[in-house]
Design brief:
2 domains, globular, alpha+beta, two-stranded antiparallel ribbon, Alpha-Beta Plaits
Length: 204
């Protein structure tokens, strides 16, 4: 009887473990954006929070794609999806194993790096990646990128919430300047970036 009871308990435990495993996988998939494969807001926030708590030199950045609405309007949502998918893949490659990328929705992306070493050069690299053309059904699609970044160590309140707010402010300050007509060519942007590593705007 004791043997049968033990077998039953083990079988029940194994069943619950399998169920928990499948549930975890389903929850994990639900936190992935189906178009880009990036983490959604919830999934990204969980992982970014862990990095920020453990890495005092972490960096949080926000980026959105300039000219994206024009791509959708002129070429359709399929073209827009192709641009978003390409941006997601490029952001993931840029983060590598040193960070985590996510998509907040629309053409808004977010990432966290575990270290701010060479941040200005890395942001310049990301800007170049995001503005590379995307080929879709025989059409070449191009967008620009507005990027704002915040070093955790530079904040009086070194939390994820504070870093996101600072990165958002940096991004929209640069976006506002460009909307007023100041459009810098790529070489000038890269030169200026080295003096202003928290802000970047590349026009579409």
């Amino acid at each position: 009887m004791n043997t049968l009871y033990a077998v039953a308990v083990l079988a029940l435990a194994g069943g619950w473990a399998l169920h928990a495993h499948h549930l975890h996988r389903r929850l994990d998939r639900s936190r992935r954006d189906p178009l880009t494969g990036l983490w959604t807001r919830d999934g990204w926030t969980r992982r970014a929070g862990r990095i920020v708590r453990r890495r005092p030199r972490a960096v949080v950045l926000l980026a959105d794609l300039d000219g994206f609405k024009a791509v959708n309007d002129q070429h359709g949502h399929g073209a827009g999806d192709a641009v978003l998918a390409a941006a997601g893949a490029r952001l993931t490659a840029w983060c590598g194993d040193r960070g985590v990328a996510g998509r907040l929705g629309g053409d808004e992306f977010v990432a966290v790096l575990d270290d701010d070493t060479r941040l200005d050069d890395r942001l310049a690299d990301l800007a170049v990646l995001l503005r590379q053309p995307v080929e879709h059904q025989g059409v070449t699609l191009t967008v620009g990128a507005s990027i704002g970044a915040a070093r955790l160590a530079a904040l009086p309140d070194p939390t994820l919430t504070a870093a996101l707010k600072a990165a958002d402010q940096a991004m929209y300050q640069v976006k506002g300047r460009t909307r007023r007509g100041r459009r810098l060519p790529l070489p000038s942007v890269l030169t200026a970036l080295r003096g202003l590593p928290q802000r970047l705007r590349l026009a579409a």
